[in-house]
Design a protein that fits this description.
The protein is mainly alpha-helical and 178 residues long. The chain has two domains: 32-104, Arc Repressor Mutant, subunit A (Orthogonal Bundle); 125-178, no CATH class. It contains eight helices and three strands; from the N terminus they run H-H-E-H-H-E-E-H-H-H-H. It has helices spanning 2-34, 38-50, 56-63, 67-79, 101-123, 127-143, 153-157, 168-177, and strands at residues 54-55, 83-88, 91-99. The chain has a three-stranded antiparallel β-sheet. Strand 2 (83-88) and strand 3 form a beta hairpin. Helix 2 packs across helix 4 and helix 3 crosses helix 4. The protein is elongated. The N and C termini lie far apart (47 Å).
C-alpha cells in the first residue's frame, strides 16, 4: 500500500510542478506589473496574506530583516499609495502597517485574473475528471485544516450526468438552450 500511495503522491507532485511551471509566465507578468523592489513586494504579500495590520516587529520577523529595514520597506509602500502606518490602539508605542484600498484592489484584480484562467482550464476538462479533481482538492484542503464550503447545488443536481454530456462545456450549452 505504501509503495502505491508513494507512487501516486510522486505523480501528483510532478503533475502539480508541471502545471506551476506552465503558469510561470503569467505570474512573472503580474509581478513585473507591480513595478517595485522585491523587498517591498515581499512586504506587500505578507500584509496581504496576514489579512490584518502587522506591527513592524511582525514584519521584520516574517521578512527576517531588521526593524530599520522594515521601516524603509513600509515607507516605500506608503509612497506608492499601497500601505499606511498607524499607531496600534492597544499599544501606542507600536506602529501597525496595513494595506490601502488601492493595494487590496490591485491584489484582488490579480487574484481574479488567475481565477478566471483556472476556470477556463477547468471548463475544458471532462466531467468525470472534474469531479475527481474536486474530490481530491477538497480532501487535500480538509487534510490541511482548511474550511471547505459544501458542494454547490449545481454540482449536486448533476451528480448523475447523462451519457451524452462528456464535458462541462456541453453542460453549459445544454443549460443555455433550455
Amino acid at each position: 500500500m505504501t509503495e502505491i500511495s508513494d507512487g501516486l503522491i510522486r505523480d501528483i507532485q510532478e503533475a502539480m510542478a508541471a502545471l506551476l511551471r506552465q503558469q510561470r509566465p503569467g505570474l512573472s507578468h503580474e509581478l513585473v506589473q507591480l513595478d517595485m523592489p522585491i523587498g517591498q513586494m515581499k512586504t506587500l504579500f505578507i500584509l496581504w496574506t496576514a489579512g490584518k495590520p502587522q506591527t513592524m516587529g511582525q514584519l521584520a520577523h516574517a521578512l527576517d530583516v531588521s526593524l530599520g529595514n522594515v521601516t524603509g520597506l513600509v515607507d516605500g509602500l506608503i509612497q506608492r499609495g499601497l500601505a499606511r502606518r498607524e499607531e496600534d490602539p492597544a499599544d501606542r508605542r507600536q506602529k501597525l502597517a496595513s494595506l490601502t484600498t488601492t493595494a487590496e484592489n490591485r491584489l484582488l484584480s490579480m487574484e481574479r485574473g488567475r481565477s478566471l484562467l483556472v476556470r477556463r482550464r477547468l471548463r475544458r476538462m471532462q466531467l468525470d475528471d472534474l469531479r475527481a479533481l474536486r474530490q481530491g482538492v477538497v480532501a487535500l484542503a480538509e487534510t490541511a485544516g482548511a474550511s471547505v464550503p459544501a458542494r454547490s447545488a449545481d454540482a449536486r443536481s448533476r451528480s448523475q450526468p447523462s451519457k451524452k454530456r462528456k464535458g462541462v462545456e456541453s453542460i453549459t450549452r445544454v443549460r443555455h438552450v433550455h
